């Protein structure tokens, strides 16, 4: 037996114990770190981020199961044999002429080791996939998932840093409102500036010109203080008209944390996307070079759309002013009509796809670099590599500092508010009330169905009236949460 191919039976016990100890130690440190991070988030009442951490643990469990599945089945998979001619089609790298003969292919596969390769070679066939290729695929899945999580966290941190600038705007509004006693005074001061910046001008009414201006607006001053004040005022007067001191900034940050929980996961359609492009990675097609443009194009379209929605909202305010309506009707009016498919959440799906696709590009580059080397044929040309890396950096920066803040603010302009309107403990309380109210309604309906006569009380039970009102509010909130999640 060669020294490099010794099994566990002929490996020194101190080597086995040492390697096992290191692996277990690293795993325990990672598990304890995640546990303490969860405790910290719960202590700081960061319920949405804690749920995102739980989602991350689920993804790690899924990766662990994939790893176990690949490890347990690699011997079985490597024993699956197929005809040689099927192994020469749709290759990432072109086979050199002297390697195309079945004899040479058989020798090369046999030299990689494994009983499966030897068994297929004796049959005059080739294995479906070698053990070495399975190992490389195993590593790629882990690298891709790890880079995706890192990119999501980086985007949220950088975007959150940009959003903290709005905290001073919120404080300014709160101070001005408390000083003047009426938010309408502050609104009137910024009202004219808002629709002048966003709506005044003959050419702005032209759809093409409006889209072009929105496209370039996302690169500089994507959200101004005037935009924030106008959209904030429209949201409050639509969803909570009595809450002049409503902290719009904290509400947006809660919704961002809730959305992060969804973005950090890897959905089935994202896995399907990975499989599709692994299939299309054929020599000469350069799919990963052209794929690098997809997240950038989608990101620019999303940014332009969000800017265009602000312009449309300002346009409605401007038209109302021109018609001489009362001041109350000239507020920004949130509506789902401005969004694609009348669904503000569709923008989140696009951002999720963009972040994953960008992470996939970068992960694939580093996986090829450390697995096969810089000169691998899969790497493509140097010009392709530089372009892909530049695209990845541009997408990450633009998404963090422009598109994500735009998304957080503009998607509040939908017809329905998001579930982050209430803190987590309040949401749980309302859902519990809604569930209790639903059960009570079912019991009443059952009694009405199975009872021939019902005694009518002499007067209404005053103690039940607040409960009924609370049930109605909770039920409405529950319906809203379901609609928003769908």
Strand order of the largest sheet: 1-2
Which structural class do the helices and strands define?
mainly alpha
Content of β-strand: under 5%
Largest sheet: 2 strands, antiparallel
**Overall strand count:** 2
Q: Secondary-structure element sequence? A: HHEHHEHHHHHHHHHHHHH
Note the total helix count. 17
Oligomeric description of these chains: single chain
Radius of gyration: 30 Å
Distance between the termini: 60 Å
Shape: globular
Low-confidence stretches: 98-113, 452-486
Q: Give the mean pLDDT.
A: 76
Q: Helicity level, as a percent range?
A: 55-70%
Structural topology:
Layout (H helix, E strand, L loop, with lengths): L12 H31 L3 H32 L2 E2 L19 H10 L3 H8 L3 E2 L3 H33 L1 H16 L2 H16 L8 H11 L7 H15 L8 H16 L4 H12 L7 H5 L1 H30 L22 H27 L10 H29 L13 H27 L13 H22 L1
Antiparallel strand pairs: 1-2
List keywords for this structure.
486 residues; mainly alpha; 70% helix; globular
Task: Report on the architecture of this protein.
The structure is a single chain. The protein has 17 helices and two strands. With 486 residues, it is mainly alpha-helical. A two-stranded antiparallel sheet has the order 1-2. Helix 5 (131-163) packs across helix 15, helix 8 (207-217) crosses helix 13 and helix 13 (293-322) runs parallel beside helix 15. The N and C termini lie far apart (60 Å). Residues 98-113 and 452-486 have low confidence and may be disordered.
């Amino acid at each position: 037996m060669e020294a490099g191919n010794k099994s566990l039976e002929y490996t020194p016990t101190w080597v086995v114990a040492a390697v096992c100890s290191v692996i277990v130690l690293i795993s325990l440190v990672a598990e304890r770190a995640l546990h303490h991070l969860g405790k910290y988030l719960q202590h700081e009442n960061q319920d949405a981020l804690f749920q995102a951490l739980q989602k991350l643990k689920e993804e790690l469990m899924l990766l662990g199961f994939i790893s176990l599945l690949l490890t347990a089945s690699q011997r079985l998979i490597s024993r699956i044999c197929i005809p040689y001619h099927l192994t020469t089609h749709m290759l990432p790298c072109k086979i050199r002429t002297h390697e195309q003969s079945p004899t040479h292919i058989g020798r090369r596969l046999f030299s990689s080791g494994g009983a499966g390769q030897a068994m297929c070679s004796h049959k005059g066939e080739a294995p479906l996939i070698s053990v070495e290729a399975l190992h490389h695929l195993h590593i790629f899945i882990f690298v891709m998932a790890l880079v995706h999580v890192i990119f999501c966290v980086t985007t949220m941190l950088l975007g959150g840093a940009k959003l903290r600038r709005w905290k001073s705007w919120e404080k300014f509004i709160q101070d001005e409102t408390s000083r003047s006693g009426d938010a309408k005074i502050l609104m009137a001061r910024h009202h004219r500036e808002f629709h002048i910046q966003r709506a005044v001008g003959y050419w702005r009414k032209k759809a093409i010109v409006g889209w072009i201006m929105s496209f370039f607006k996302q690169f500089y001053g994507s959200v101004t203080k005037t935009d924030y004040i106008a959209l904030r005022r429209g949201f409050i007067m639509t969803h909570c008209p009595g809450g002049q001191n409503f902290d719009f900034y904290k509400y947006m940050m809660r919704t961002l944390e809730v959305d992060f929980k969804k973005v950090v996961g890897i959905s089935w359609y994202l896995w399907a996307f990975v499989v599709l492009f692994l299939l299309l990675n054929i020599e000469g097609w350069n799919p990963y070079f052209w794929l690098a443009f997809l997240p950038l194009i989608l990101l620019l379209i999303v940014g332009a759309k969000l800017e265009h929605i602000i312009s449309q909202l300002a346009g409605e305010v401007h038209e109302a002013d021109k018609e001489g309506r009362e001041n109350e009707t000239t507020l920004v009016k949130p509506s789902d009509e401005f969004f694609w498919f009348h669904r503000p959440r569709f923008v989140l799906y696009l951002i999720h796809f963009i972040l994953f696709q960008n992470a996939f590009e970068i992960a694939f580059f580093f996986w090829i670099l450390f697995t096969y080397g810089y000169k691998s044929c899969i790497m493509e040309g140097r010009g392709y590599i530089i372009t892909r890396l530049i695209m990845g950096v541009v997408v990450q920066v633009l998404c963090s500092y422009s598109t994500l803040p735009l998304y957080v603010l503009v998607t509040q302009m939908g017809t329905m508010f998001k579930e982050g309107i209430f803190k987590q403990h309040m949401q749980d309380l309302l859902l519990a009330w809604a569930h209790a109210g639903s059960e009570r309604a079912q019991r009443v309906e059952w009694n009405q169905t199975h009872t021939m006569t019902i005694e009518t009380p002499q007067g209404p039970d005053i103690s039940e009236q607040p409960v009924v009102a609370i049930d109605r509010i909770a039920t409405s909130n529950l319906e809203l949460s379901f609609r928003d999640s769908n």
